[in-house]
């Protein structure tokens, strides 16, 4: 069964691992230069990055985020659906191996290969981007398009969470394939479902995993970030933190809407920020209550997310086993 | 008589439709059993239940003394060549044999290789590039080389041209003679089965209409021809299977141990196809006629 699983996987796995190897070589050769620059450049490290470094920073992050989706589509969805399409399940289920063992071997080995690919890629990209991440994490102001590791835009492209994403996307593809029973529609639905989950988790699930820290800060020209049309948004002096929510409170600590005169002085587009307007807010006792996740929780969130997605993958695998025993012939 | 397959009130329902209902059947061991019936009679459902591909909705089925697909020991006892003889298009013939070797404890590698050589197939050729007949032979090889007690074949020749059909059947007969395994194979054409089978089961609308060794079936069925009349006057042990009026004549197909010696009837021996067609043409118990299904086939 191991041989058959390997024989059926080797084309996709070979292509995936070959691409990863190419990327790994590029990261390895440029990564040491990046590290050297980081150690010598000091404060203006980010400004001295080359165009190529910036591209690779983006490509690396996108690759780590895209790999689980691709694994779900191209390894997961066809894994069993292809057998059902061709009728070969009726050949293989009548050899001397039970359906359950067949499924466990296929899911287990292919799933491990998927997790290893995602883990290796995330490890390589996280190592390569280490200097940039350290700089972005150490800065309390927004550093151009370099994001702290805990920000939703970068979290899925770092650490161990992508291993869980790959396991989940793979079993999601298998499950949808078995339910839909047609390869192409199953691939598309897998992609849509996986993206939906990846958008929903940072919006609603991840912020609630650990109760956020809170702080109140006066509103000033120094920390003012933007006026979104209804609320003032400020930056907090917590390097690398992920700001989850903020609202304005008055001198008594009650949550309030911004005063009616604020849109007049902040709402217009002008070259210079009207600092008097912000000073007046501060004098009247308005402050900003900010809830955030500190940068130090990055690894805690990573392990949580790995655990959650692995658990989801196991549940989906169990569902597949039950469904195949009950409904497929 | 030891049984290789025993079904009791067996039924399988898909959503609202019963594909097989209340089927009771005994299949003796050591025979080549033909399962014949029109499309939709439940042949394929029955064979899939016997191989464990399907689980019954109602009733029981026992194959080689165990529950179909009930474990590795049971899987080793039963070989199944599914309809359309599926194989892995991307795998070579050699890789299929390796698959059989890896997945079956009792795999007979020498037998499999000998068969492939005798069929003149190149082990390096991909199964996707084989003709329908060659693919069926490959699927049969996988079924035989696992050395099962019972080999089940679901319409193995339905998609083959007449020549490939004949070759496949001859090859199957040789394999059966060589290895002494029991075989159940289905077809909607009697002509496919009569050369190879020594036992026949006629299935119409889930019901076993007739079952028995071919010799016995032929010995107990008689064709009565005479001037047009009602067949009610025949003795009680004469079961009229079919009645056919044409012009002034009446032709009956009658099941009886010994035909009555009545000068009003001319008695002759029907061939196997006549017997089977008489059963297939009988009005079905639930009203709709299987005759139309049969005529569509012929």
UniProtKB/TrEMBL annotation, chain A:
The chain crosses the membrane at residues 12-35, 55-80, 107-129, 159-179, 186-205, 303-324. It comes from Planotetraspora mira. The keyword Transport does not apply. It comes from the Bacteria. Keywords: Membrane, Transmembrane, Transmembrane helix. This is Transporter.
Automatic annotation (TrEMBL), chain B:
PROSITE patterns: ABC_TRANSPORTER_2. It comes from Planotetraspora mira. One of its GO terms (molecular function) is ATP hydrolysis activity. InterPro entries: AAA+_ATPase (IPR003593), ABC_transporter-like_ATP-bd (IPR003439), ABC_Transporter_VariousFunc (IPR051782), P-loop_NTPase (IPR027417). CDD domains: ABC_DR_subfamily_A. Gene3D superfamilies: P-loop containing nucleotide triphosphate hydrolases. The keyword Nucleotide-binding applies. This is ABC transporter ATP-binding protein. Pfam families: ABC_tran. Keywords: ATP-binding, Nucleotide-binding, Transport. The keyword Transport applies. Residues 5-230 form the ABC transporter domain.
